[in-house]
Every structure is written in C-alpha cells, then in structure tokens.
Amino acid sequence: MIQGMLDFLTDPANWSGAEGIGNRIVQHVWYTFLSLGMAAVIALPVGLLIGHTRRGAFLAINLGNAARALPTLGLLTLIVLLMGRIGFTPVLVALVVLGIPPILTSTYAGVSGVDPATVDAARGMGMTGGEILRKVEIPIALPLIISGLRSATLQIVSTATIAAIVALGGLGRYVVDGLSLRDFPQMLSGAVLVALLAIALDLLFALAARFTISDGLTGRVTKSTIQTTPAEAGS
Asked: Of 234, 220, 216, whose CA–CA distance to 135 is shortest?
C-alpha cells in the first residue's frame, strides 16, 4: 500500500488538470482560509469584548466549548437538514462553527489575562477603555490570539475533507473516492496530503508569530506604551 501511495503521489498525471493534486490543494486551502476568515470576524470581536469587560464570559466560552464538542459529520448533517440543501454553504457553515471556539477562547484568555496592575496604570495615565484595549491588552494578548488562529486553522484544514462528502473538491476527494472505489493507495495519499498541508500551514503560523511577536513583548508594552501616554495626552 505504501508503494502504491508513492506511485500515486509521484505520477505526473495525478498533478495536472481540474482533478489533479495541485488544484485539489488550492481548493482545500480556499475552504480553509475562507472559513478561518469568517470565524475570525465573528470570534475576535467577541473575545476582545468579553476579555476587556469581563462580562458574558461564562456564556460565550461555554457555548464555544459546546460547539467544539459537536461531531463534525453530525453537525454537517444537521446544517444540511436545516438548510434543506447540500453544497458549499452547509460545509462552510460547519467549518466556521468549528473554527470559532479556539479563536474565541484564546482571545478571551489573552485579553483577560493581562495584569490588572498594568491596566490600572494605563487608566491612571488617562487612557480610555478603547485605548487600553488597543495599546495595552491586544499587544500583550497577541501571542495567545495567534495561537487561537493557529489551532483553528489546524481544526479546519483537517475537517475540510468533509467537503468531498457533499460532492465538493479539496483533498478529501481522494479519501472519499478512494474509499468508495476501494483504491486504498489513493485514500492513503489523500490522508497524507491533508496531514502535510496541516503541517505546512502550522509552520506558516509559527513563522508569522516569530516575526510579529518579539521576545519580551509583554514587558516592553507594559512600560513603553504607558510611558508614552502622558506625552500623547499633553499634545
């Protein structure tokens, strides 16, 4: 089976055309980042708000954890039944629902975990609530926010294989078609490609975090952000 998988992956014919591996990877990445973007648009503002105000955290976090516990195939089936049709939209909704919890919980944890003394010092320097959020809490919480996006990406990219169940594309196509045709080398190839894509995207987020978050960020933000505030207030 391993040799059959290697033959499948190294055959140039399997990399070209609309059903080729290259196009399937593009489709899978598109499903992933579209879902991730929509999940972030929903989860980031909510996480920032409840982390900053400390209000509604119990309800939001528990709803997020409940959504995370839902079985993917069952969730997709429920959405299809509710929408009354199959296609891209039910898959997109399912992936967005699965992507929200890690972003929401990590954003909340990052913002709410900022040292209260730092927040009090910023408030004493004349910062408004919005300025504290933008200039103090978000920079300090950035490592956890990126970690949440990273976790959501891995969740979505591994789950996007369900798109093939409703006759869509992506790398899940090889898994589903291989299973139905009993073509196990093709099925194994699809699973390996999904795993490699997940690793590649995880490495991209690790690099992004490395270049956007420097060592000692918390200390520098705590000191420099607050120290520059009086000058800004006097200008």
From this structure: 220
CB atoms within 10 A of CB 151: 18
- CATH 1.10.3720.10 describes domain 2-11+23-234: yes
Instruction: Give the chain as a DSSP string.
Output: -HHHHHHHHH-GGGGSSTTSHHHHHHHHHHHHHHHHHHHHHHHHHHHHHHHHH--SHHHHHHHHHHHHHS-HHHHHHHHHHHHT--SHHHHHHHHHHHHHHHHHHHHHHHHHTS-HHHHHHHHHTT--HHHHIIIIIHHHHHHHHHHHHHHHHHHHHHHGGGGGGGT--STHHHHHHHHHHT-HHHHHHHHHHHHHHHHHHHHHHHHHHHHHS-TTHHHHIIIIIHHTHHHHHH-
> Which pTM value belongs to this model?
0.84
pLDDT of residue 216: 57
Domain ranges in the chain are 2-11+23-234
Mean pLDDT for all residues in the chain: 85
Could you read off the pLDDT of 38-86 as tens digits, one per residue? 999 999 999 999 999 888 888 877 877 787 777 877 888 888 888 877 7
Quickly state the pLDDT bin for 105 (edges 50, 70, 90). very high
Q: Cα 96 from chain centroid? A: 9
